[in-house]
């Protein structure tokens, strides 16, 4: 029994010898459209192109904090001005001050504090939560969060966009992940101070605390009442507690 095999006209491996690489990939895509090649050829072409481009990338891009942050991160500091200190952050060693309204403190190691993470897709923070303390409902629009409990007991959870609730109690050594953009919280569920470290898959994951967004600014009380279904007395009380106006 004979089987006819359609010839595979693929020039993917020629990319190692032909420049510019981008032009060759476009040619492969054209051949695919004409039926003269296969998706596998294009995949191999793109794989080789990405490998070549990756080899041309610089080793790092320490953020130049003298400029403004952008969606693409900070501009790179001149390599001649980069020192070992740019890749070291000691701020997470010190406990945060929990003598405040929420009895908790967040010490960030985001790109604004730790310029060495610029462009690397990572950052970290320290959470100190006193007994009775809470990290209120908040979101990180720009990144996922991974929490590891170092000391104490923490009740943690998040609410999905479908309004499903995922809550658990975490003890020393336990880890929990919070998907990007989801409302989440952490509460000290024990009688002793709790300590956790968190990491993010972004150098600047962002932070918006729901209560502060509603009651710690100048959003007029009538609007807050409309969107929260709270009465005027409750809204004004919360604004007073959190320093809002209007």
UniProtKB/TrEMBL annotation:
Signal peptide positions are 1-23
Which spans are transmembrane here?
Answer: none
Pfam families, per the entry: Cupin_1
UniProt keyword Electron transport, yes or no: no
**Which positions bind oxalate?**
140, 145
Residue ranges annotated for the Cupin type-1 domain, each copy included? 90-236
Q: Which GO terms describe its molecular function?
A: manganese ion binding
Q: List the disulfide bonds.
A: 61-76
Q: Which domain of life is it from?
A: Eukaryota
Residues that coordinate or bind Mn(2+): 138, 140, 145, 184
SUPFAM superfamilies attached to this UniProt entry: RmlC-like cupins
Localization, UniProt: Secreted, Extracellular space, Apoplast
Query: In which family does this protein belong, per the annotation?
Result: Belongs to the germin family.
Q: What is this protein called?
A: Germin-like protein
Please name the source species: Musa troglodytarum
């Amino acid at each position: 029994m004979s089987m006819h095999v359609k010839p595979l006209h693929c020039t993917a491996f020629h990319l190692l010898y032909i420049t510019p690489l981008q032009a060759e990939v476009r040619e492969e895509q054209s051949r695919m459209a004409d039926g003269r090649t296969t998706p596998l050829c294009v995949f191999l072409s793109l794989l080789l192109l990405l490998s070549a481009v990756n080899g041309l990338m610089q080793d790092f891009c320490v953020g130049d904090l003298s400029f403004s942050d952008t969606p693409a991160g900070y501009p790179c500091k001149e390599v001649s001005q980069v020192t070992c200190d740019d890749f070291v952050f000691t701020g997470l060693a010190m406990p945060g001050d929990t003598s405040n309204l929420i009895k908790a403190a967040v010490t960030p190691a985001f790109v604004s504090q730790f310029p060495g993470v610029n462009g690397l897709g990572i950052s970290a923070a320290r959470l100190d939560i006193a007994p009775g303390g809470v990290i209120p409902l908040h979101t990180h629009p720009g990144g996922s969060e991974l929490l590891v409990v170092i000391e104490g007991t923490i009740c943690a959870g998040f609410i999905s966009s479908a309004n499903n609730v995922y809550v658990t109690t975490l003890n020393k050594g336990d880890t929990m992940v919070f998907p990007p953009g989801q409302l989440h919280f952490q509460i000290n569920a024990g009688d002793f101070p709790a300590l956790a470290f968190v990491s993010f898959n972004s150098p600047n994951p962002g932070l918006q605390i729901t209560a502060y967004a509603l009651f710690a600014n100048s959003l007029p009380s009538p609007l807050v009442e409309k969107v929260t279904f709270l009465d005027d007395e409750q809204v004004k009380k919360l604004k007073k507690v959190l320093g809002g106006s209007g």
